[in-house]
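User: Quick sanity check before I run a bigger batch. Here is a single chain. Can you write out its predicted 3D structure?
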Amino acid sequence: MLNKKAQLLGLMAIIGLTSTILGCREQAQATAPVAAPAPVVVAAPVVRTKELAMKALMALPELKAWSAHLEKTSGGKVHGALIEYDQAPKIVNGKRYWQFSFVENGSDAAHRWESFLVAQDSDEILVDDTASDKAITLDQWRKDSKPMERADAY
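Assistant: Done. Predicted structure follows.
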């Protein structure tokens, strides 16, 4: 009988110990910090400053060629330059554009050659036809106006 009592006490001790261990484990899991979900990375919208817009324009092959032509034919007295013709962004199809004109900048006056719209939130550049108040793509402008030939006409 003592043997059975000892077995019963041993069994109760094992059950108690197991319950304590499992209970602590469950409690530890319940109170353990839950890893936060990985943050969702949302790409910030591209925002082109005025300065970056001007650099993008002056990087166009047409404006480089026009500037070089003006410098060469004037002996350095006339330069190609960009002027902002309206500080307020122009809205075209819901997009905001910086507004610049490429001008022949001499000592007495600046003569506009072409006007451009540079997107503030993408790499898009449009040509602003101020006479018709329409904007066209660079590709369309190049096809229709053949701007690389313009330097040869002066």
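Residues 61 and 148 are 8 Å apart (CA to CA).

User: Great, the batch can go ahead then.
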